[in-house]
Design a protein that fits this description.
High affinity receptor for urotensin-2 and urotensin-2B. The activity of this receptor is mediated by a G-protein that activate a phosphatidylinositol-calcium second messenger system. It holds the Pfam family 7tm_1. GO terms for molecular function: urotensin II receptor activity. Keywords: Cell membrane, Disulfide bond, G-protein coupled receptor, Glycoprotein, Membrane, Receptor, Transducer, Transmembrane, Transmembrane helix. About 75% of the residues lie in helices and about 5% in strands. The protein has one domain: Up-down Bundle (Rhopdopsin 7-helix transmembrane proteins). α1 runs antiparallel to α2. The protein starts with a strand and ends with a helix. The N terminus and C terminus are likely disordered. A 3-stranded antiparallel β-sheet has the order 1-3-2. It is elongated, with a radius of gyration of 25 Å.
C-alpha cells in the first residue's frame, strides 16, 4: 500500500533533506520550534477570544433578522474550529510525532480543508448577494432568513463532502520510531485530489468573486455620475469594500500554503535544505492561522457599518413613506391602485438611490 506522509496544520507533505543538513533535534531547531509554538499559542488566545465574542454578538443580533449576521456566524464558526486545532499542532511540533490517535488524524487534518472551504464558500455567497442586491434589489429583499440559514447549512455540507476523502483515507502509522498520520491514497490519486481542492477553494471562488466585483465596480462607476449630480456626494460602499478586504485577506493567507503544497506534489525534488523546508512550513502555517485571528476585527467593522446603514435606511424609508402617504391624497381618483403600484415599482428600479437603500436593507 502506497502512502503519503501527512502532518496536521496544513503541512501535508514532509520531504526529506540532504545528508549534510543539520539534525532536526539541534539547538537551532529547538529554538525554532519554541518560537513557532509561542506565536501559534498567542494566535490561538487572540483568535478564539475574538471569534467567541463575534459569535455571541451575532447570535444576539440575529433577532433583528439580517442576512449578513447569518453569514458572519458561518465565518466566525469556521475560524473558531480551525483555531481550536492549534493546541494539538503545538504539541505535535514539540513532540516530533502524532500522539492523538487515529481519530485525531482524521479530524485534525480534515479540519484544515473543511473550514477553509466553508470560509471561502460563505464569502462567495456574500459577494453574490451584494451583486444581486445592487442589480435586483427587490428579489434580494424577498429572501427570508430561513432561506439564508439553509444556504449556510448547505455550505457546510458541501465542504464536508469535499473533505471526505481526506477523512476516510488517513491512518495513523509508525514512521521509524514515531507515529505519523499517513494518507493511503496513491501518489497520483493524492496529487489529483490536492489539485482538485486547490481549484474548489481558490481558483473557482476566485473567478466567481472576481467577475462579481468587476461587474459591481462597473455598475457603481456608471451610477456615481447620476448620484453625484443629485447629492454632490459619492455613495458610501463600506460594506462592499470590507467584504472584498476579507476575501483578499483569505487569498493572501492561504495562497502561499497552496503554492507550497502544489510544489511538493509536482516538484518533489526541490533543491531545498531541511531547514528551508521547515521554515517555509512554519511560515505557511502561521499565515493560515493568522487569517482566522484577524477576521474577528474585520467582522466588527463590517457589522458596525451595517448597523449605520440600517439606521440611515430606516430614516430614509420613514421619510419616504411620509411623502408617499401625502402624495396618495393628492392623486386623481381615476388612477387605479395597480397603475400606482406599477409606477412606484418602476420608479424604485430606475432610481439609483432607492436601489442603494434596498441594497443596504438586504444585508
Amino acid at each position: 500500500m502506497t502512502t503519503v506522509s501527512m502532518e496536521p496544520v496544513g503541512v501535508l507533505v514532509e520531504r526529506g533533506g540532504n545528508a549534510t543538513d543539520p539534525p532536526l533535534n539541534s539547538l537551532e531547531d529547538t529554538a525554532a520550534t519554541f518560537t513557532i509554538g509561542t506565536i501559534l499559542s498567542i494566535m490561538c488566545l487572540i483568535g478564539v477570544s475574538g471569534n467567541i465574542y463575534t459569535l455571541v454578538v451575532m447570535c444576539h443580533s440575529m433577532r433583528s433578522a439580517a442576512s449578513m449576521y447569518i453569514y458572519i456566524i458561518n465565518l466566525a464558526l469556521a475560524d473558531l474550529l480551525y483555531l481550536l486545532t492549534i493546541p494539538f499542532v503545538v504539541c505535535t511540533h514539540f513532540l516530533k510525532g502524532w500522539y492523538f490517535g487515529d481519530a485525531g488524524c482524521r479530524i485534525l487534518i480534515s479540519m484544515d480543508f473543511l473550514t477553509m472551504h466553508a470560509s471561502i464558500f460563505t464569502l462567495t455567497i456574500m459577494s453574490t448577494e451584494r451583486y444581486f442586491a445592487v442589480l435586483k434589489p427587490l428579489d434580494t429583499v424577498k429572501r427570508s432568513k430561513s432561506y439564508r440559514k439553509a444556504i449556510a447549512l448547505l455550505v457546510w455540507v458541501a465542504s464536508l463532502i469535499l473533505t471526505l476523502p481526506m477523512i476516510v483515507r488517513i491512518q495513523l502509522m509508525a514512521v521509524g520510531t514515531k507515529p505519523m498520520c499517513q494518507s493511503t491514497l496513491s501518489p497520483l490519486s493524492y496529487k489529483i485530489y490536492i489539485s482538485f481542492l486547490f481549484c474548489t477553494s481558490i481558483v473557482a471562488p476566485g473567478l466567481i468573486i472576481g467577475y462579481l466585483y468587476i461587474q459591481l465596480a462597473r455598475t457603481y462607476w456608471i451610477s456615481q455620475t447620476e448620484t453625484f449630480k443629485q447629492t454632490k456626494k459619492l455613495p458610501n460602499q463600506k460594506v462592499l469594500y470590507l467584504i472584498f478586504t476579507i476575501v483578499l485577506l483569505f487569498w493572501a493567507c492561504f495562497l502561499p500554503f497552496w503554492i507550497w503544497q502544489l510544489l511538493g506534489q509536482f516538484h518533489p525534488s526541490l533543491p531545498l535544505s531541511t531547514k528551508a523546508k521547515r521554515n517555509i512550513n512554519y511560515l505557511t502555517t502561521c499565515l493560515t492561522y493568522s487569517n482566522s485571528c484577524i477576521n474577528p476585527f474585520l467582522y466588527t467593522l463590517l457589522t458596525k457599518n451595517y448597523k449605520e446603514y440600517l439606521r440611515k435606511n430606516k430614516r430614509l424609508w420613514t421619510t419616504g413613506n411620509y411623502f408617499n402617504r401625502r402624495s396618495r391624497f393628492q392623486r386623481s381618483p381615476r388612477r387605479s391602485p395597480s397603475a400606482s403600484s406599477q409606477q412606484c415599482t418602476e420608479s424604485f428600479m430606475l432610481t439609483h438611490t432607492a436601489s442603494l437603500r434596498a441594497h443596504n436593507s438586504s444585508l
